[in-house]
Specification:
The complex is a heterodimer of chains A (683) and B (198).
Chain A (H helix, E strand, L loop, with lengths): L1 H28 L2 H30 L6 H6 L6 H7 L4 H22 L8 H21 L24 H16 L1 H13 L5 H31 L10 H26 L3 H24 L13 H22 L16 H33 L7 H21 L10 H24 L5 H32 L3 H11 L1 H21 L5 E7 L4 E5 L5 E14 L2 E12 L2 E14 L5 E8 L1 E4 L3 E10 L6 E9 L1 H19 L7 H9 L3 E4 L5 E5 L1
Chain B lengths: L4 H12 L2 H5 L3 H11 L25 H7 L12 H5 L7 H14 L4 H12 L13 H37 L10 H14 L1
The chains are: A alpha+beta (683), B mainly alpha (198).
């Protein structure tokens, strides 16, 4: 099967060259036969790369340990779900998986794009073929998953214990889907530049793709945080690790794009900026992969150092040079159709939102690369860890949170003082009231307090927008409030879905601020002994050590330490944390013992218990107990964020036939008094 | 020595079965046997319960020591600070050693800065979780905020200037001029709607 896989990769390389050549030639010369061929190449890619991926999967499921990749990442007793995750658990397999998803997206882009964008499709096929070619070349020459060993081991080394977690089965594919789907909007942007068709057409073509990418990136990042929290045992979920940063960078630039694209659609402005943002997002997605896999920056997550780094670097340089050339030669077609009339406008607030989002991306990239820069400038390597990133990025993040509330309140084009007063009165009052309440309770952490005040302001903004919208529908159409809410969201999914996303962001940031009140206690306990750990909410948890037990389970030997938990004298249950020593099928230990934390999750806080080890081989256990406030809300914030994204993505929701008819009949304004019935209708 | 019939049968069978098979280790069976012999309060297989640990002392929960350790990077290559590493990666041998070194310096009544300096002298600046705010490192801290401020300032200046120029130009043309083909009244209505409804 591996020979078949290898052949499939070579065929994919040839097809990619063909697709790129006929795509460019077909688009340039408008030759239908070449265009058809380029588009069909995308489906052929999907077919041959699927064969390659299936070949690797068959090798894994048949335990063909003569294949180096199978021997390195699987073992005979590895549970089936983790055999699937082993496909992308190592460098070579993950790159093949990447190529496969890229082929899926390339085929979907050709299949799902409406006919009115046919003028872009040959170029889209060509760009997708070029990117596919790059990954296939890396697979063939630097990271071949079908490479064979000179001998066949009796069993493989097994999958890293930290990857044997349900979160790790889903998290990488989600993140890959996010990273890779950015290629589609990028391909459309390049196609628009090549075709010199830089009106809003290409933006409409990629709108759903950009939201899809953004949703997958959001899910991938949130799942990554969840995995780090439940599996790594350090009681946190974000450590500003280079690999985490690499996933966050394209998310930030995509978020900036999703805002700035509205300005181009409504006002014909920021054309250059939107092309730059899409190209930057794609560049950063590849750059993130480069720093993860090249080994230039040390990271907990990074793959071992390998020759793929050189290939990625060459690709990044080629990408940057060709984008600069394309942009420069097409700059005349990217001139704006109108100009900003006032800084006090929604466009103005979006500009500052973009500045902060891209500024934050720059700041994170700068911090991630600073050890290398420092070494180049001073000859001394430094460490840039969480203290640096928190110090630099928390103020930017809070400013962004503030703008999240400001944007929806300001009118397009130019806001009048009356408009500002009317829009800001309630949200600002809510924020000030929260500030007063925090002062009254002597809230200790400055940044957390600011986050709570700004969060209140943003939520009040969103509530005000929904209340006004529902009220208007209720008065105009006589709908019940519930129906009015559903129809309000249904008729303008982009706007109200966006507001739901804003609420998700607020929940995220307020939940992050809970980290300021985290409390850790280490204790060694004999059976029956009790330790206490304080909650920031004013009470204590009592944790009584029950004992330590050892037993065999699946492919591992487990040592479990259990504590009985009570709060204010009320028993809450038993938490068991484990040490796991994994074995291969011949009962040989693989990897060092890993730790499984026990978590009691609640709305206010999580109690996080880690069994550090036993004292002198006895049942006296060493524990770390952590009270982690508001962690549940991080996951809930992720759900709300993604839900909002799905609402904006959901098909339909455009203008109704009646509203189109009315619009065609002429300009119509319906004046509605805020407190009473409709007062006038002017046509 | 008395031999039962069962013993004879056992030894007879053993002679028939290849020695390799008889001598093959079966860790699970071995553990099962050992389980029966384990005294109360002891683990049957301590070697599989991670690194042996000593009892927790007051130093482990000392906020001063934790504060210092959170500023020091474990040199094992894990990218974590000493406190997080020693309370997370229980296989690491480096962070417990660094923890003991911090304790010994605390016992010598060293201040937090003196302890950090001692580690920098031993391991270089890379041992700090964040670069010191001195020399070129200041650029690292300041540049992102500075860049955002400068770009933001330039944006405000350029856009305000353009808006002013356009306002002057439109006032020279005259306020009664139709906007984009609309009458003055229609333009006013449009403006009012955009202001109020957005």
């Amino acid at each position: 099967m591996t020979i078949l896989g290898q052949l499939a990769l070579w065929l994919a390389a040839l097809l990619a060259v063909w697709g790129a050549v006929v795509g460019f030639l077909g688009g340039r010369g408008n030759r239908p036969e070449l265009i058809r061929s380029a588009r069909r190449t995308q489906y052929a890619h999907l077919g041959v790369i699927s064969v390659a991926l299936l070949s690797l999967m068959v090798a894994i499921f048949r335990h063909d340990f003569n294949v180096a990749y199978v021997a390195a990442y699987t073992s005979r007793n590895l549970p089936t779900p983790y055999l699937i995750s082993a496909v992308y658990g190592g460098q070579n397999g993950s790159l093949l998986f990447w190529a496969f998803i890229l082929a899926v997206f390339a085929a979907l882009a050709q299949w799902l794009t409406p006919k009115r964008y046919d003028y872009l499709m040959p170029y889209v096929a060509a760009v997708m073929s070029c990117v596919t070619l790059f990954f296939v070349v890396v697979l063939l020459f630097a990271a071949n998953p079908f490479q064979r060993l000179a001998f066949t081991p009796l069993d493989g080394q097994g999958l890293n214990p930290q990857l044997q977690n349900p979160g790790m089965v889903i998290h990488p594919p989600m993140l890959y889907l996010g990273y890779i789907s950015i290629t589609v909007p990028f391909a459309f942007a390049v196609a628009a530049l090549l075709a010199r068709q830089l009106d809003t057409g290409w933006l409409h073509a990629i709108r759903k793709w950009t939201i899809v990418s953004w949703i997958f990136l959001s899910i991938g990042i949130t799942l990554g945080m969840w995995w780090a929290y439940v599996e790594l045992g350090w009681g946190g979920y974000w450590a500003w690790d280079p690999v985490e940063n690499a996933s966050f960078l394209p998310w930030l630039t995509m978020t900036a794009f999703l805002h700035s694209v509205m300005i181009q659609e409504k006002r014909g402005m920021l054309k250059k900026w939107n092309v730059i943002l899409i190209a930057l997002s794609f560049f950063l997605s590849i750059f993130g992969t480069f720093i993860t896999r090249s080994g230039i920056i040390s990271s907990v997550h990074s793959f071992t150092q390998s020759p793929v780094g050189f290939y990625f670097l060459v690709f990044l340089v080629l990408l940057a040079v060709s984008m600069v050339w394309l942009f420069w030669t097409r700059r005349a077609a990217l001139e704006p159709e109108s100009h900003l009339e006032s800084l006090l406008s929604r466009e103005g607030s979006f500009l500052f939102n973009n500045l902060l989002l891209v500024g934050m991306a720059f700041s994170i990239l700068w911090g991630t690369m600073f050890p290398i820069i420092s070494e180049l400038v001073r000859g001394t390597q430094v460490t840039v860890g969480p203290p640096f990133f928190n110090q630099v990025n928390i103020p930017i993040g809070l400013a962004l949170l503030g703008l999240t509330g400001v944007g929806p309140l300001i009118a397009w084009r130019k806001a009048s003082p009356r408009n500002l007063r009317r829009q800001f009165a309630v949200p600002v009052t809510a924020g000030v009231m929260m500030a007063a309440a925090l002062v009254a309770i002597r809230f200790s952490d400055f940044y957390a307090a600011v986050a709570l005040c700004l969060g209140t302001f943003v939520v009040a903004t969103v509530v005000q927008e929904f209340t006004r919208g529902v009220g208007a529908r209720h008065r105009l159409h006589g709908e019940s409030h519930a129906l009015a809410l559903v129809r309000l969201i249904g008729r303008n999914r982009r706007r109200y879905g966006g507001y739901i996303v804003h609420v998700g962001v607020v929940i995220y940031i307020v939940a992050f601020s809970g980290l300021a009140f985290k409390n850790d206690v280490e204790a060694s306990l004999k059976p029956g002994e009790t330790a206490s750990v304080k909650s920031p909410f004013g009470y204590s948890y009592d944790l009584t050590h029950v004992g330590v037990s050892q037993y065999d389970q699946l492919n591992r030997f487990v040592t479990t330490a259990s504590v009985e938990v009570s709060r204010n004298g009320r028993r809450l249950g038993v938490l068991s944390s484990e040490k796991r020593q994994y074995f291969d099928s011949m009962k040989r230990p693989t990897f060092n013992p890993s730790t499984e934390a026990a978590i009691m999750s609640g709305l206010r806080e999580d109690l996080y218990v880690v069994f550090a080890g036993a004292v002198d081989g006895t049942e006296e256990a060493v524990y770390r107990f952590t009270v982690n406030p508001l962690v549940w809300w991080v996951w809930f914030g992720g759900v709300v964020l993604v839900l909002g994204g799905v609402v904006t993505l959901w098909p339909g929701g455009g203008p109704t036939r009646a509203s189109v008819r009315r619009a065609l009949q002429g300009y119509q304004v319906t004046l509605v008094d805020r407190d009473r019935e409709p007062v006038a209708k002017v046509t | 020595m008395m031999r039962t019939r069962r013993d004879v049968l056992k030894h007879g069978l053993a002679a028939l079965v290849p020695t390799g098979l008889l001598q093959q280790d079966d860790p699970a069976a071995e553990r099962q046997t050992r389980q029966e012999d384990v005294p109360v309060g002891r683990l049957r297989d301590p070697g599989l319960a991670g690194q042996p640990r000593g009892p927790v002392t007051d130093y482990e929960n000392d906020p001063f020591i934790i504060g210092v350790e959170e500023k020091l990077r474990c040199t094992c290559g894990c990218n974590l600070d000493v406190y997080t590493c020693r309370t997370t990666d229980f296989t690491c041998q480096v962070s417990p050693a660094m923890h003991r070194r911090v304790i010994s310096l605390v016992e010598q009544n060293k201040s937090a800065q003196e302890i950090l300096d001692a580690f920098v002298a031993e391991h270089g600046e890379m041992v700090l979780m964040a670069p010191r705010k001195e020399g070129f490192n200041i650029v690292g801290y300041v540049l992102p905020g500075f860049a955002i401020t400068v770009v933001g300032g330039c944006m405000v200046w350029i856009l305000a200037r353009r808006a002013k120029l356009r306002a002057v130009a439109s006032s020279q043309v005259g306020s009664g001029t139709p906007i984009d083909g609309l009458s003055t009244e229609e333009a006013a209505r449009l403006e009012a709607e955009l202001r109020d409804l957005e």
